[in-house]
Design goal:
This protein is α+β, with helices and mostly antiparallel strands and 458 residues long. It folds into two domains: 23-210, Beta-Lactamase (2-Layer Sandwich), CATH 3.30.450; 307-456, Heat Shock Protein 90. The strands form three sheets. Strands 1-12-13-11-10-8 form a six-stranded mixed β-sheet. Strands 2-6-5-4-3 form a five-stranded antiparallel β-sheet. It has helices spanning 12-20, 26-77, 81-94, 115-128, 171-209, 225-273, 277-301, 313-322, 346-363, 424-434; strands at 7-8, 98-101, 108-110, 133-138, 141-150, 153-159, 309-312, 330-335, 341-344, 372-381, 384-390, 438-443, 449-456. Helices cover 53% and strands 17% of the residues. Residues 192-246 form the HAMP domain. Pfam families: HAMP, HATPase_c, HisKA, RisS_PPD.
Length: 458
């Protein structure tokens, strides 16, 4: 049996799955890289801004706290005991500043919460003296504590941490989320803008591949000059290919008519004028072979879009087997455990199965018996149906495998006596591809060749 791809049977499932699977699209790849770039830039900008404004904010906070401590120290120093109590109460009620005596047994944790806190602590110690203590908790009570002296007496000044700056403010988070959202939106818009003309080009190319030249026309008036030039060039190419296709159809129709008419006359003259029965039979067989070769040429050259519809795979295989069940040199076993529908053209799929069976009968005979043992197995999986057609013949050399679906190619010595046009498997491969499937053939580990067909499930 001939082959369309160079795979071993064990590697076929992986190859087929990877063929039908979808990698990451250009849109998502472009979106990912743009989003990564914009988010990275936003974070870098945010860190740069915070670093640049950290020093001025530390100096401002230190100046305010120094003024607060100096004012509190001066007020306490020049007030009597009764006025001092009233002053401490007023500071606590109106300014949220608590002043208390500092005991030797007090335990505290120094304020070094972050880079900003360290800068504020250094600035306060520089302004208030080396005996100044800046702590974030005293005796387990958290806050912003400043320890200072008044004529040998030691005090704690407790104030709210908001005076130091919004170290836990949600403003930064809100702005970061806003910047991220705007960046992602912009990345999606840019990626879509880049991807849209390529997606349209891909769709037009797929329609042109299927022979629909009218649906493959692209807009020649887009704003982007590069895309406009590509679209114009593609449209001109589609027009030329459409003209070539029309000329080809006319030429094939002419060839078919011009060749079949003399062949029909030859057949008639042979039947009437040749007296030797054996010679007449050989001449009639040659004429039949020429007629079949013309059919193969026309089948291979046909590019008309196929009409896909859900059809019964069981019925198609049964019809293909029924047509060859009387052959003495062919034995077929079919293993399909359920009724399976595929999305295909019924006539084209029947032609494919029949072609593969005939190919196995010709080239896949078992050497010992001279009979072709063919197995047909079909299984449905997810949205796909896999069909396997295997013989137990001699197989094909690894050097020949990649070439066997080339039109008119003839392989090893086993094929030298073939009377076909060398288009059988080329037609099979093209037909399966036109129906949105995949066709792969390979040597089996135990001898013989196996054909794999993968079609959408009906």
């Amino acid at each position: 049996m001939e082959h369309s791809k160079h795979f071993t049977e064990e590697a076929l499932p992986t190859a087929i799955e990877s063929h039908t699977g979808h990698g990451i699209s250009l849109f998502w790849r472009t979106f990912f890289f743009l989003a990564l770039l914009l988010l990275g830039s936003s974070i870098a900008w945010l860190q740069t801004f915070r670093s640049l404004e950290s020093e001025p904010r530390a100096l401002q906070s230190a100046q305010q706290l120094t003024s607060l401590v100096n004012l509190s120290r001066a007020a306490l120093r020049y007030s009597d005991s009764i006025a001092r109590l009233a002053l401490i109460k007023t500071l606590a009620d109106e300014e949220q500043v608590n002043i208390s005596a500092r005991e030797a047994k007090d335990s505290y944790v120094l304020f070094s919460k972050n880079e900003l806190g360290e800068r504020i602590s250094e600035a306060l110690i520089t302004r208030l003296g080396s005996n100044t203590i800046v702590a974030k908790s005293v005796n387990g009570e958290t806050g912003f504590w400043v320890g200072f002296d008044i004529d040998g007496d030691k005090y704690w000044l407790l104030t709210d941490q908001s005076r130091v700056g919004p170290s836990h403010s949600s403003t930064w988070i809100i702005w970061l989320i806003t910047a991220a959202a705007l960046s992602l939106t912009g990345a999606a818009f840019i990626a879509r803008l880049i991807n849209k003309p390529l997606k349209e080009l891909s769709f037009a190319a797929s329609r042109m591949r299927d022979g629909d030249f009218d649906a493959s026309r692209l807009d020649e008036h887009v704003a982007t000059s590069e895309i406009r030039e590509v679209n114009i060039g593609f449209n001109r190419m589609a027009e030329q290919l459409s003209k070539v296709e029309q000329d080809r159809v006319i030429m094939l129709a002419g060839i078919s008519h011009d060749l079949r008419t003399p062949l029909a006359r030859l057949r008639l003259e042979t039947e009437m004028s040749v007296s030797d029965e054996e010679a007449r039979a050989h001449m009639a067989a040659d004429i039949t072979q020429l007629d079949a070769i013309i059919d193969k040429f026309l089948d291979y050259a046909r590019l008309d879009p196929v009409q896909l519809s859900p059809i019964s795979l069981n019925a198609v295989i049964e019809a293909a087997v029924y047509g060859v069940k009387e052959y003495d040199d062919l034995r077929i076993s079919v293993k399909i455990t359920q009724d399976i529908d595929v999305l295909a053209d019924e006539i084209e799929l029947l032609r494919v199965i029949s072609n593969l069976v005939e190919n196995a009968r010709r080239y896949g005979k078992t050497p010992e018996t001279g009979v072709a043992m063919v197995e047909i197995v079909a299984t449905a999986r997810d949205k796909w149906v896999q069909i396997k057609l295997r013989d137990h013949g001699m197989g094909v050399s690894s050097e020949t495998l990649p070439k066997l679906t080339r039109p008119f190619f003839r392989g090893d010595a086993a094929r030298t006596s073939a009377t076909g046009a060398g288009l059988g498997l080329a037609i099979v491969e093209r037909t399966i591809q036109r129906m949105g499937g995949m066709f792969v053939l390979a040597n089996t580990a135990t001898g013989g060749l196996v054909a794999h067909i993968k079609l959408p499930r009906g």
